[in-house]
Amino acid sequence: MEDFLAISECSTDELTGLLEESRSLKALYKAGQRDLCLAGKTLAMLFEKPSLRTRISFQVAMTDLGGSPIYVKPEDIGGIGKREPVKDIARVLSRYVHGIMARTFEHRTVIDLAKYADVPVINALTDWSHPCQAMADVLTIVEHFDRIEGITIAYIGDGNNVARSLAFAAGKLGMKLVVASPPGYELDSASMETANHFAPGCVTQLDDPRAAVADADVIYTDTWVSMGQEDEKEKRRKEFAGFEVNADLVAAAPKHVKIMHCLPAYRGFEISDEVTESPNSIVFDQAENRLHFQRALLRKLMS
Ligand code: CP
Ligand code: NVA
Fold first, then answer.
1. What are the binding positions for L-ornithine in this chain (predicted)?
2. Per the residue annotation, which of 59, 64, 98, 103 is the catalytic one?
3. Minimum-distance ligand 2 atom for the alpha carbon of 133
4. Which CATH number fits domain 134-284: 1.10.10.10, 3.30.470.20, 3.40.50.1370, 3.40.30.10?
5. Which residues contact 284 (CB under 8 A, 6 or more apart)?
6. Separation of 39 CA from ligand 2 center, angstroms?
7. ipTM exceeds 0.95, yes or no
8. Full DSSP string of 145-181
């Protein structure tokens, strides 16, 4: 494993290895111990979009391992691919740092960074995928259910970057993903095919949220308005009507169902405040596990 750009590019063994490593490093750090395997190493963190969880959890993970993170705003470097080509940024950074993580609009940007960099490149969210999120989510599921195999996730809402990474995780790790979206917002058919190629029938697309949650172990949702889609907010709010994860929808699921959201959550849109705050909600465990997964990822790629 040289880079971490998409779950679809990783083997099942690599993913399960990362999950095991996440759990053991989590236990180590919870016990107050440290593994300074990245002492003297530096990670450049390029962000074209805002972030709370990703930025802070990567900075903490890097510091935890003895390394140094450098946060780079696009305006600091005149924009990614604007002041100079992405391929030049990749090659220059490779002369200074030991790893690059990037949150970009176009997925092509992280592919080009990885192509031209001599150091590992990590996808910290693109319009196409959010693999660190999906792996932290799987880690959270393992902790709550003590298994991954056979878990059914009902994903309600936009067939976006988060849904796509969950679909690939389902295909690689033996879960089922049932996506329910309004017309025009389904998970794209190429991604469905990719996931179902890994494990036939692991991902299905419906238009009825109640049918989707009927056998769910987990109900998952994400914003209806991803970063960069702010101009479509009013249109999307109307078109996603009926897809809110609220108490009525949760009542249609099995009693043991857990509620997941990658955050930030727009309460009263894709999820109600009541459901976000309910005892079944594990959204903050997910947020915490970003740190534990990424510590393991940095260790694997950079040590
Ligand atoms: N879930 C997530 O990636 O959050 P941030 O946008 O705050 O990093
Ligand atoms: N789908 C959202 C995820 C935010 C963590 C976005 O891309 O903005």
1. 161, 222, 226-227
2. 103
3. 5
4. 3.40.50.1370
5. none
6. 32
7. yes
8. HS--TT-EEEEES--SHHHHHHHHHHHHHT-EEEEE-
Asked if 76 is an active-site residue, the reply is no
Domain ranges for the chain: 7-129+287-302, 134-284
Q: pLDDT digits over 134-172, tens only?
A: 999 999 999 999 999 999 999 999 999 999 999 999 999
Ligand 2 site: residues with CB under 6 angstroms?
125, 160-162, 222-223, 226-227, 262
Count of beta carbons in the 10 Å neighbourhood of residue 171: 26
Report which bound ligand comes closest to the CA of 162.
2
Q: Annotated catalytic residue: which of 98, 164, 290, 292?
A: 290
DSSP state of 187: P
With cut-offs at 50, 70 and 90, classify the pLDDT of residue 119: very high
Integer Cα distance of 144 and 209 in angstroms: 23
Q: How far apart are CA 58 and CA 98, in angstroms?
A: 14
